């Protein structure tokens, strides 16, 4: 990856919250720590950011940025681990029954289910405009959206925590993604996402988690739920054996796509 592209991605990672860690940059850029430090030094010399302990932040004069969600922007995330996400989406759609009502939480992995729902005539509640766009050509699929604010980084509709914007809807199955999954539970990088997913979970009989194996790692973040609140995990063959065992011990069915 060229330095210009890395610098663009660094600035994009800074935009939502104004701070990014070295660890997050290493994961997103696939570059060595030394390379990332050189990139940050150049951007600091240009006045684009300030290097601080553990990462970098936006300069104070740029702190009036438009608020957004923490985490990787959708257009960047969708290209990461794509073959695994496509296989997971196909396996997850196979769990749906014709005519069933389901909920699809916004995400790059749940999006991969959409093509395989065609012909099932499902009723789908989703907060993702990407998923709405993918489902609209399917004449038999009925689509519902909650109300709220559109967050452009993820193209997702969210209401503030504590505000219930969901239509009256109950579904046998909720399909959702995660930023990370570990022994402590399912995590997201933004508390607004956590609130939205909890509202979905309250309306579902079964919680089905769609995550590629890169998500099974130690990470900080807001906990959505414990492992014991998940019914099924659909993932790829790269899932660590110890994590698969912990999931099964928590009563979670593991489906390997």
UniProtKB/TrEMBL annotation:
Signal sequence extent: none
Taking every annotated instance into account, which residue ranges of this chain make up the domain HTH deoR-type? Answer: 3-58
| InterPro entries with a match to the protein in the record | Carb_Metab_HTH_regulators, DeoR-like_C, DeoR_HTH, NagB/RpiA_transferase-like, Tscrpt_reg_HTH_DeoR_CS, WH-like_DNA-bd_sf, WH_DNA-bd_sf
GO molecular-function term, one example from the UniProt record: DNA binding
Q: Which Gene3D superfamilies match?
A: Winged helix-like DNA-binding domain superfamily/Winged helix DNA-binding domain (1.10.10.10)
Per the database entry, which stretches of residues form a coiled coil? none
Database matches in Pfam families = DeoRC (PF00455), HTH_DeoR (PF08220)
Record's keyword terms, sorted: DNA-binding, Transcription, Transcription regulation
Under SUPFAM superfamilies, the record lists:
NagB/RpiA/CoA transferase-like, Winged helix' DNA-binding domain
Protein name (record): DeoR/GlpR family DNA-binding transcription regulator
Biological source species: Novosphingobium clariflavum
Lineage start: Bacteria, Pseudomonadati, Pseudomonadota, Alphaproteobacteria, Sphingomonadales
């Amino acid at each position: 990856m060229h330095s210009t592209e890395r610098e663009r991605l660094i600035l994009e990672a800074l935009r939502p919250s104004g701070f990014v860690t070295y660890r997050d940059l290493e994961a997103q850029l696939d570059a060595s720590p030394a390379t990332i430090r050189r990139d940050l030094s150049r951007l600091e010399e240009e006045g684009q950011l300030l290097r601080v302990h553990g990462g970098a932040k936006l300069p104070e004069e740029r702190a009036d940025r438009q608020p957004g969600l923490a985490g990787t922007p959708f257009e960047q995330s969708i290209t990461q681990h794509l073959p695994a996400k496509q296989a997971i989406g196909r396996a997850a759609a196979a769990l749906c029954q014709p005519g069933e009502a389901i909920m699809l939480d916004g995400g790059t992995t749940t999006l991969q289910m959409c093509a395989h729902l065609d012909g099932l005539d499902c009723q789908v509640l989703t907060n993702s405009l990407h998923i709405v766009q993918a489902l609209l050509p399917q004449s038999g699929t009925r689509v519902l959206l909650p109300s709220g604010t559109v967050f452009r980084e993820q193209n997702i509709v969210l209401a503030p925590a504590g505000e219930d914007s969901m239509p009256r809807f109950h579904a046998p199955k909720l399909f959702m993604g995660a930023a990370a999954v570990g022994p402590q539970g399912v995590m997201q990088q933004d508390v607004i996402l956590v609130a939205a997913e909890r509202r979905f979970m309250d309306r579902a009989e079964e919680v089905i988690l769609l995550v590629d194996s890169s998500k099974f790692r130690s990470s900080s973040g807001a906990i959505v739920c414990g492992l014991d609140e998940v019914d099924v995990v659909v993932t790829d063959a790269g899932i660590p054996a110890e994590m698969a065992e912990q999931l099964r011990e928590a009563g979670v069915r593991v489906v390997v796509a």
